[in-house]
Amino acid sequence: MSESPTHGTPRWTDAFARLVLASPRLVLTVSLLLAIVGGVLGWFRLPLDANTDSLISRERPWMKLYLGFLKEFGDLEYLYAVVDTMGDRAAGERAVDDLLTRLQKIPDLPGVYGRIDADEAWRIATRAMPIDDLRGLTLARSAFPFLSDGPTALAQGEGMLGRAMSPSAFTMKGDERERLGAAGMLLLEAVAGADQGPPSVMGESIPRLSTPPPSAYLASDTNRLLFVAIAPHKDFSRLAAIEEPLRAIRAAIDETRAAFPTVEIGLTGKPVLQADELVTSTGDTTWSFAISLVVVAVICIVVYRNVRRPMLALVAFG
């Protein structure tokens, strides 16, 4: 029995080795039970969270602002399908329409945006316009009830401007005159800018202003690239948070690419990059583990001049 050179008592490693050799089955049973208990506790107490936002403390001031933004506007980390029209804008638009149709059939995509139609334009108008324009709309708010009909808008606009320019307007209180003039100008500009042309004052019919504007595609400054923004459902309880929707998105892109061979279509965005990096790192880790295991096994076999014990050690390690 080996003695400690300082205390004259058996080392704990020697005692542990004797226990293992004396009762190997007991040691294996206890180890298996502890592994099961650890696995159960880990399953319920250590949930997987693949959200990279969780890497940062939620108590940091700027993180609180970011979380507030997410609560108000939702997750805006989109995937982007990019359509290179290669100079053929018409083919690019048809490819976008085809891709939108395919993507909208995928259930795990709560948001797919490739065009700005009339309803979407109204929804984002107040967020997209400059502050001065918003201030102007606030001043002209009394004109809103009359914007949907050309003849009414023309008559109301002329009447409001007439009152704003009359001598009695100088007796109005506060900014009432300014609001009246702004409302009148908005109505007249809306009538003059209607798609069917300016109104006629010689008895011709005045167009209605409710005609929806044409859809606008999401395009680059050069109009060569068209974009489709995709919001996938993310399951952060899995390492591959968008694995299923990403597979469906790429299948839809492949089908559209085959239908429109004159354009090029690619997919980008932070979620895509993270998913591809995960696939690459997982494959590299698997190969490196397998190669290192083989190298260690060969070294142990050569050094110890034995095959059985090194292989048993690798099995235990596994």
Description:
With 318 residues, this protein is of the alpha+beta class. It is 55% helix and 8% strand. The protein is built from eleven helices and six strands. It is elongated and about 110 Å long.
Structural descriptors:
alpha+beta; 6 strands; 4-stranded antiparallel beta sheet; single chain; 318 residues; two-stranded antiparallel ribbon
* Proportion of strand residues: 5-15%
Gap between N and C termini, in Å? 31 Å
Total beta strand runs: 6
The sequence of SSEs as H and E is HHHEHEEHHHHEEHEHH
Order of strands, widest sheet = 2-5-1-6
Overall body shape? elongated
The biggest sheet, with number of strands, parallel, antiparallel or mixed sense and barrel status, is: 4 strands, antiparallel
Mean pLDDT: 83
The Cα radius of gyration reads 35 Å
The total count of helices amounts to 11
So what's the oligomer here?
single chain
By secondary-structure content and strand pairing, the structural class works out as: alpha+beta
Unreliably modeled segments:
195-208
Brief summary:
The chain is α+β, with helices and mostly antiparallel strands. It has helices spanning 12-22, 24-45, 61-73, 89-103, 118-128, 131-139, 150-165, 176-192, 243-259, 270-304, 308-317; strands at 79-84, 111-113, 115-116, 216-217, 225-231, 264-268.
